[in-house]
């Protein structure tokens, strides 16, 4: 049986962070990965679903 590859950024078994940049844009980020320069952790680590809910609640217009 062939193993299935799961992108670790999409793997719900990991804890995630919510990041915010200077343009007030949010990003869902896995806790195990280094936070990129210019981004600030504003929520987490939490399960992916909780981080997604946080983004939906706080990022009112994703076009910005």
TrEMBL record:
Transmembrane segments: none annotated. Pfam families: MbtH (PF03621). It comes from the Bacteria. SUPFAM superfamilies: MbtH-like (SSF160582). Residues 7-57 form the MbtH-like domain. This is MbtH family protein. It comes from Vibrio porteresiae DSM 19223.
